[in-house]
Amino acid sequence: MKIATYNVNGVNGRLPVLLRWLGEAQPDIVCLQELKAPDDRFPEGAIRDLGYDTIWHGQKSWNGVAILSRVGEIHETRRGLPGEPEDTHSRYIEAAVNGILIGGLYLPNGNPRPGPKFDYKLRWFERLIAHAAELLATGLPVMLAGDFNVMPTDLDVYKPERWLDDALFAPEVRAAYFRLLDQGWTDALRTMHPGETIYTFWDYFRNAYARNAGLRIDHLLLSPPLAERLEAAGVDSNVRGWEKTSDHAPVWIELADSSTRKRRKAKTEAS
């Protein structure tokens, strides 16, 4: 099963790019971020024509998240993180799809730092950490996927010395990300590409994509039952080079039907 996350940076304005990528890559499940569209403007029909069921949590001009599936019904379990009832930003949607509980998220950018936006980012991260702990405690196969707006390490950012004052690279934000991982989550892309320079975002300015001056800010985190099924992970970086494309590229993983550890053990015992 192939699962992807993609910050589309405007689902209607980038719809031809999204549909082209869906048709070529054919992911089974997709989490989208930055829809930048109210609920009544989500292009459900065009996506359904490619064989995908959808749920979405939109917002006019900003934010917005969605989950797409071509491998079974989407059973929504939550929209919005608990912990701050007055928060109206459309940044989190959660659903059970084909035996997996998926939380699709768009974590706040947080700039400028310091300031109210950065404080909101830290609060949102704390709410995510608290909810993620509850998800892990269920023992179910769970995934958190989306634009986390954090570069965890120096390896995840081109020229890190230029980002020291940015909210995406702030020590508090990076520490929060690793507290999240320390609960027991697996960073799928980094696990499959340890030590490799691999990015998911390239700014529109300063010819960043052509220079490969990027950031790794889009992540897929797996609970232990899913981590055992991880077979591959990658970035469709070529999509960033398409005309009128998002500044992000799709990030994907492939999961085996059963634990790779169990299958390796069975293979060893058979031989």
UniProtKB/TrEMBL annotation:
InterPro entries given in the database record: AP_endonuc_1, AP_endonuclease_F1_BS, AP_endonuclease_F1_CS, Endo/exonu/phosph_ase_sf, Endo/exonuclease/phosphatase, ExoIII-like
Enzyme class: hydrolase
Ranges of residues in domain Endonuclease/exonuclease/phosphatase: 4-248
Alphabetical list of Pfam families matching this protein: Exo_endo_phos
Gene3D superfamilies, sorted: Endonuclease/exonuclease/phosphatase (3.60.10.10)
Cofactor(s) needed for function: Mn(2+); Mg(2+)
One GO MF term attached to the UniProt entry: double-stranded DNA 3'-5' DNA exonuclease activity
Protein name: Exodeoxyribonuclease III
Organism per entry: Novosphingobium anseongense
Gene that encodes the chain: xth
